[in-house]
Amino acid sequence: MKKKLTVSAIKKRKNNKKISMITAYDSLFAKIFDESDIDIILVGDSLNMSFRGEIDTLSASMEVMIYHTKAVCNGAKNSFIIADMPFGSTINKEIALTNAMRFYSETSADSVKIEGGIERAEIIKYLVENGIAVCGHIGLMPQNVRGDGGYFVKGRDDISREKLINDAKAIEQAGAFAIVLEGVLETVAREIRDSVAIPVIGIGAGRDVDGQVLVWSDMLGFFQAFKPKFVKEYLNGAELVKNSVKKYIDEVANGEFPARDNIY
Ligand code: KIV
Q1: Residue with CA nearest ligand 1 atom 3
Q2: How many Cβ atoms sit within 10 Å of the Cβ of residue 10?
Q3: N or C terminus of the chain with fewer C-beta within 10 Å?
Q4: 182 is catalytic
């Protein structure tokens, strides 16, 4: 089956039709998102919190990310798939290339995503030179949560604003085909979008970017631990599931299930 988008098609969406991206961690939901015509599916290391119940993304290993990426690739045959490189998997260019190549050889992911700005530019360049398509990720970087002491919006002062613009330019020069921009003031996100010729895909970065990405369990109302301001809940998933399971429990108790239709 032909992929809906390619790297060059994604680049052409700059200042054009907005890009829609959603995370997925398993085959079942990946298939549903794929059939909904989503442009890009990100196998984000956010799965460590949402799917595995850990407090942050840092303990997601390459094994875990490969396992989930395989599952997503089995479910989504049309959407462009990006696999997140987990914490510690890009500490130098040789290690980063070995790990990125695992995504290519052990799964059918179309690209990888790397958190980091100027400090990761050399690594991104090396991967791109070796045939790996790389999406950058700057702004609020969840893999820095312990060093930063929490999740904080970026671009609030001139130093932070300038750093973000320089990060975006460095990643573009290194050969990334797109940038995920997380947790940044809308005015600064707009400047970043205008500073580079590759698409900037925002999450908590306001309206003036080339596309949006949301974590599936946030936007469908399944993740209940906390709800960031930038999330829009398109479904009250947890409530719907709880109500259905309660109904099932009642029907098992009162003998309504299984009904005549459900027996051999
Ligand atoms: O891991 C993830 O889901 C991400 C998104 C928040 C962009 O990186």
Answers
A1: 44
A2: 26
A3: C
A4: yes
**Burial grade of 79 (CB within 10 A; 0-12, 13-18, 19 or more):** buried
Determine if the peptide bond prior to 86 is cis (ω within 30°).
no
C-alpha torsion 197→210→107→76, nearest 10: -150
7-233: CATH architecture: Alpha-Beta Barrel (3.20)
Residue 72 in tokens: 């997503």
What is the three-state SS of 89-137?
A: CCCCHHHHHHHHHHHHHHCCCCEEEEEECHHHHHHHHHHHHCCCCEEEE
Separation of alpha carbons 173 and 24, rounded Å:
29
User: 10-60: per-residue pLDDT in tens?
Assistant: 999 999 999 999 999 999 999 999 999 999 999 999 999 999 999 999 999
Per-residue pLDDT tens over the stretch 49-80: 999 999 999 999 999 999 999 999 999 999 99
Ligand 1 center–CA 208 separation, angstroms = 19
Q: Which atom of ligand 1 is the closest one to the Cα of 215?
A: 3
Mutate to test the pocket of ligand 1, among 29, 46, 135, 181 (most ligand atoms within 8 A of CB): 46
Residue minimizing CA distance to atom 2 of ligand 1: 44
Which H or E element spans position 62?
Answer: helix 62-75
Residues in the ligand 1 pocket, defined by CB under 6 Å = 23, 42, 44-46, 84, 137, 180, 182, 203, 213, 215
